[in-house]
Amino acid sequence: MITVKRAFDHIGMSVPDLEEAVDFFVDALGFEVVIKAGPFDDFGYVWPGELGPEPGTLRQANLVLGDSFNIELLEYTNRTAAIPDAAPRPADPGGWHLCLHVDDIDKASDELASRLDTTKISDIIQEEQDMEGLRWAYFRTTWGLVLELIQWSPGMPYESTTQARMALPRWA
């Protein structure tokens, strides 16, 4: 384990169109743009087995949600490496989703489902047993991001089995 001080900093996400993704995060989710950077002439890292960074064009934007969450959006264009046919699903190895805690999942779910740039891919699910009290729903943007909305409060049954606790947003 890393023994120095550590804290969450950001999630980085590759997007096909930086402006579209920034607009979605700002308009639909309430993020604020901190900085936009680029274009850069290469991707800035050397992938194992390669001799140098992949040439291409990189633009990025860093956004923040309140005082709780940083995200880095990365647009890679003019690539020399083959692009996969599709992003992995959340259940596939390497797959993932972005989850936002909301204070009213019914209202937030209705608002997000009404947008033309999202598709609801699950109804609101109410968990049982150790996670009773947790409610969630999945959505997908037109450009492939899988987004989860979640609502829960302290006092779920799992808390009787451990001293560890899930982190809550500061407003909760």
Q: What does this protein look like?
A:
GO terms for molecular function: metal ion binding; methylmalonyl-CoA epimerase activity. Strand 3 (55-65) and strand 4 form a beta hairpin. The protein folds into 2 domains: 1-82, Roll (2,3-Dihydroxybiphenyl 1,2-Dioxygenase, domain 1), CATH 3.10.180.10; 90-172, 2,3-Dihydroxybiphenyl 1,2-Dioxygenase, domain 1 (Roll), CATH 3.10.180. Strands 5, 6, 7, 8 and 9 form a 5-stranded mixed β-sheet that branches. A 4-stranded mixed β-sheet has the order 1-4-3-2, covered by helices on one side. The protein is mainly β and 172 residues long. The protein contains 2 helices and 9 strands.
Q: What key phrases describe this protein's structure?
A:
about 170 residues; globular; 2,3-Dihydroxybiphenyl 1,2-Dioxygenase, domain 1; mainly beta; 5-stranded mixed beta sheet; 2 domains
Estimate nothing, just give the exact number of structural domains: 2
Approximately how much beta-strand content do the residues carry?
Answer: 25-35%
**Rounded average pLDDT:** 87
Q: Can you tell me the residue ranges where pLDDT is under 50 for at least 5 consecutive residues?
A: none
Query: What's the CATH first level of the largest domain?
Result: Alpha Beta
Distance between the termini: 30 Å
- According to CATH, the homologous superfamily of the largest domain is 2,3-Dihydroxybiphenyl 1,2-Dioxygenase, domain 1
Q: Per the principal axes of the C-alpha atoms, what is the gross shape? A: globular
Order of secondary-structure elements: EHEEEEHEEEE
Helix content range? 10-25%
Tell me the structural class: mainly beta
Q: Which CATH-level-2 architecture of the largest domain?
A: Roll
Rg, rounded, reads 18 Å
CATH topology of the largest domain: 2,3-Dihydroxybiphenyl 1,2-Dioxygenase, domain 1
Q: Largest beta sheet, briefly?
A: 5 strands, mixed
**With helices defined by DSSP (H or I, 4 residues minimum), what is the helix count?**
2
Strand segment count: 9
Domain VOC: 7-152
Keywords: Metal-binding
GO biological process, one term: L-methylmalonyl-CoA metabolic process
GO molecular function, one term: methylmalonyl-CoA epimerase activity
